[in-house]
Amino acid sequence: MGWTWRYETRDGGVLEGPALPTAAFPSQADAESWVGEAWRDLLAAGVDHVVLLDDGVVVYGPMSLHPAP
């Protein structure tokens, strides 16, 4: 399964759908690098938070995609 992201709304609801990537990454660094590049697109797709998973186990999150005030 590898390293994946779970996409969430502000209230913690899980978002899924064809517009949201479901790729698994071979390492934590690869997953974090990808989200660092894709966060604006995810935010535009309605994602408020992401949660990093390693083989389905939560590593950290939720992490907001909104810029700090």
Features:
69 residues; alpha+beta; 4-stranded antiparallel beta sheet; 4 strands; globular
How many H/I helices? 1
Total beta strand runs: 4
State mean pLDDT (0 to 100 scale): 93
Low-confidence spans: none
**Domain module tally:** 1
Structural class of the helices, strands and pairings? alpha+beta
Shape: globular
| Termini separation | 35 Å
State the oligomer.
Answer: single chain
What Rg do the Cα atoms give? Answer: 11 Å
Largest sheet data: 4 strands, antiparallel
- For the largest sheet, list the strands in their spatial order: 2-1-3-4
Relative strand content: 25-35%
Order of helices and strands: EEHEE
Give the topology, please.
Layout: E1 3-8, E2 14-15, H1 28-44, E3 49-54, E4 57-64
Antiparallel strand pairs: 1-2, 1-3, 3-4
Q: In short, what is this structure?
A:
The protein is of the alpha+beta class.
Can you characterise this structure?
Helix content is 25%, strand content 32%. The protein is α+β, with helices and mostly antiparallel strands. It has one domain. It has a 4-stranded antiparallel sheet, covered by helices on one side. The longest helix has 17 residues. The protein is globular, with a radius of gyration of 11 Å. The relative contact order is 0.28.
